[in-house]
Amino acid sequence: MTGAADTVKSFIARALKIDESAVHESLQLGAIPQWDSFGHINLMMALEAEYGVPITEQTVLQHVSYAAIAASLAALKR
Amino acid sequence: MEWIFACSPPLSAPVQKAARYRLHFCSPEIIRFQVSPDAIRLTLSTDDESVWHEVSRKVERVVSGVRDGFVPPEERLYMERRHPSPAWSGAGVNLEQAGLIKKAGEGFYVTGPLIAGLVERLDRILLDMADVFGARAVGTPALIAPEVLSRVDYFRAFPHSLTFACHLPRDVDEIEAFSKQPFEADGSLAPAASGAGAAVLSPAVCFHLYHFLEGTSLGQALESYTVRGRCFRYEAGALAGLERLWDFTMREIVFVGEQADVMDARKRSMEWVTDLADRLGLVCRIESAADPFFVGEFKQRTVFQAAFDLKYEWRADLDPAAADDLAVGSFNVHQTHFGKAFRIAAPSGEMAWTGCTAFGLERLALAVLRQHGLSPDGWPEILKSDLSVSIE
After folding, report:
1. Closest-CA residue to B115 (of B303, B367, B314)
2. CATH number of B332's domain
3. Rounded to a whole number, what is the distance in Å from the CA of B76 to chain A's nearest CA?
4. Could you say which of A41, A45, A57 has the minimum Cβ distance to residue B306?
5. What is the DSSP letter of B237?
6. d(CA B237, CA B58)
7. Structural domains in chain A?
8. What CA–CA distance (Å, rounded) separates A15 from A57?
């Protein structure tokens, strides 16, 4: 596992309060009980607090999967 | 004494509106307030500067809760009707002075025969919509268990509007003492009666239905129910006549099932209401909306509702200048929030989606009165048709 993937996994696991082993690259909103509407709110709050991604309609709709969050975090690091 | 809370940067119009509603719940020391872009002017119950510092901290909490980084959701207009028919003869009429309602307490009114009859007529029309969906009637109590409200996350989202039911302790001394002196010198109820009890007065009627369906697997892709009941939402200083009641009547048509079927049901209910708006000749619109979440997660929840298109309101004008309008109904989708909370399974095996189309009956009646006047002779035909409830 790469360091970047590790960061994404760890971030999502922390925000959704789940074990890192439950986070995989095809994970998305609605796929597990913890990533429901309120889990998504927590994820967006964590994204704003830890990475400065503002909570807007666009970012809420954009970050609905592991892949989308990974892409955003990668773009922030560039 | 007036105090000024400076706002920097200035508050946008939507943030002013959000702050204005929540300031009613900010501090009991605030007697009056006025919100403008640059400042909030507050009249407090005391000149004590230490009280002002405490109030100022709370005002800061409210303002920052609704402002920081908040981008107002984009408004989506589903329909708008500008009918020429309203005479507006009821606009500006004081219903209490006209003898049509009687204030029974702060935020609750007795409605006389004209308005009570109109409410019944409107409700019967709404039952036609319930029939279209094959909705089955469910009876619900006014009380709801705190545990049920906690499971739907109501305590986190809307703590400010809760109304607790309470009773005296099971203690003969305290019961007898209360019966002899139920009121304090200032007119308030004796403390024995003021504790929160084991029940809350229900803020919505559909919560009971989801609880009723707990642990079930639905037999159909869409099941529809209809519920009418009293609802209780404390609104502090925002309480105002029939526009904003503490205790009001709600008719709901509730949809439970697969995602696509619930979404389609909500859309069809919006189409039905659009047709009803035409038959009622109401100046109104259906537009996207957000629930009045309290300050804690206001921004996140509001943006979430908007992003996923979860809420629309049916809003009717109350005066010809369109300076004042009122939500008389709403069209809501909750995704799997309630399905998950009460383990309701859709036929596919997935958690059920839910949605509800809800109407505030007194508010809908008020919109009719404001636009079409106080005389049934001036009301649209649909309200004069063959319904058995007398309005005399």
Report:
1. B367
2. 3.30.930.10
3. 13
4. A57
5. G
6. 17
7. 3-77 (1.10.1200.10)
8. 19
Q: What percent of chain B has pLDDT over 90?
A: 66
As a three-state string, the secondary structure of B150-191 is: HHCCHHHHCHHHCCEECCCCCCHHHHHHHHHCCECCCCCECH
The parent domain of residue B31 ranges over 2-67
Domain match, B63 and B88 both: no
The pLDDT confidence band at residue B195, using thresholds 50, 70 and 90, is: low
**Predicted ipTM beyond 0.90:** no
* Residues in A touching B307 (Cβ below 8 Å): 57-58, 60-61
Q: Are residues B59 and B109 in the same domain?
A: no
- Over residues B170-191, the pLDDT tens digits come to 889 988 999 999 999 988 888 7
Tell me how far CA of residue B147 lies from CA of B151, B199, B336, in angstroms: 6, 9, 19
Domain boundary among B10, B43, B67: B67
Among all residues of chain A, which has the CA nearest to that of B74?
A57
CA distance B237 to chain A (A): 30
Q: Is B257 left (phi over 0), alpha (psi -120 to 50) or beta?
A: left
Chain A residues in contact with B337 by the CB 8 A cut-off are 36-38
In the numeric block, which tokens belong to residue B301? Answer: 């929840």
- Say whether both B103 and B240 belong to one domain: yes
Q: Is residue B299 part of a domain?
A: yes
